[in-house]
Design brief:
Strand content: 15-25%
Helix content: 25-40%
Order of helices and strands: EHEHHEHHEHEEEHHH
CATH topology of the largest domain: Rossmann fold
Bound molecules: iron/sulfur cluster
CATH superfamily of the largest domain: Response regulator
Radius of gyration: 22 Å
CATH class of the largest domain: Alpha Beta
Structural class: alpha/beta
Largest sheet: 4 strands, parallel
Shape: elongated
Amino acid sequence: MIIAERKPIKELLEMLAGHDKVLLVGCKGCVTVCNAGGVKEVGVLASALRIARRRQGRPIEIDEMTLDRQCEPEFISWLEEPIREKGYTAIMSAACSVGPQYIAERFDKVAVMPALNTKFIGGTLEHEVWAEFCRACGNCGIHNFGGLCPITRCSKGLLHGPCAGSSGGKCEVRPEVDCIWHLIYTRMKNLGQVEKLKALKPAKDWSSYWSGGVRRVVREDLTL
Ligand code: SF4
Ligand code: SF4
């Protein structure tokens, strides 16, 4: 899932300066799972912003709404009626950064701002701890590495590891993190495939990564 975290209140207040009637919009997708932008977080954030603005001597009216998803235009259309009828001057989106961009493209007369920082594609390690697992390189090759991704999880992105700094199974760059090459080696050993790691692999073709501009996926077999 996409992992995000809420921006500091101070930064959000700066964004909201000059706005007195705002709609705060959450999302029931990934950001609900990572406790950043679901119904509960929207309620807590709206209260915090109202209190902060009252203390500043400039009260703000903040309505709350949480969409099933903000990464699909059909759900964004649910905002049309409230925006038309309530006269908001700004929409603050508590979704990954797809959400505020869809809202900005749809409504050209209201300011749009992100309440969250979109961090990475990741998974849950333990309660309230998430880690990055994939950089969406667009051409997954983790079968060559025992099912683990060195592009994302090696601090140096090495495709032929480990580096000389791996120590005690930990990464020299981030000692709190496992050296992924230690895990790859252990796993390949358990699979009886260590020899595969010795084969020199050709340079990775990065044309499927983001440096080539905006990427798209088109499922022609599903288009009407
Ligand atoms: S190889 Fe690419 S697609 Fe596969 S997990 Fe790593 S970054 Fe993600
Ligand atoms: S210690 Fe391991 S994870 Fe860290 S940079 Fe070196 S090879 Fe990569």
